[in-house]
Amino acid sequence: MRAALEAVAPDDFVVAHSFGATMLLQILAEGVRVAPRWVTLLAMPDWSPEGWNVADYAFTGPEPTQNISLHHCRDDEVVEFAHLALNARRLPRAARHAHDSGGHQFTGLAPEIAHDLMGVPPR
Length: 123
What we know:
- This protein is of the alpha/beta class.
- The chain has one domain: Alpha/Beta hydrolase fold, catalytic domain (Rossmann fold), CATH 3.40.50.
- The chain is about 30% helix and about 20% strand.
- It has helices spanning about 1-5, 20-30, 80-90, 110-120, and strands at about 15, 40, 65-75, 95-100.
- A four-stranded parallel sheet has the order 1-2-3-4, with helices on both faces.
- It is globular, with a radius of gyration of 14 Å.
- This is Alpha/beta hydrolase.
């Protein structure tokens, strides 16, 4: 993932889902030579003691400099919706998007997520 990130241009968008979002966040926090300005994280688990309590994956910062957008569905059957608030606490600059339905795979939400990507960049 680190090598792929170094190949993107600053104006590229990067989207990661679930565990991939966790890994992307960790790499961005470490810093990469070239990184995108905008990152969208879908259904990202929180691995802290308040979440799934797996220290090896828990995000401890620093908050990446990229504009981050967090998306989570209330009916996610894999990563509980409460993880959105836990992640938002660790990433206070991130834009938060709560979806009523779509499950863990964001079924039917591609247009809405694409709008977020192509619309006004996340704060």
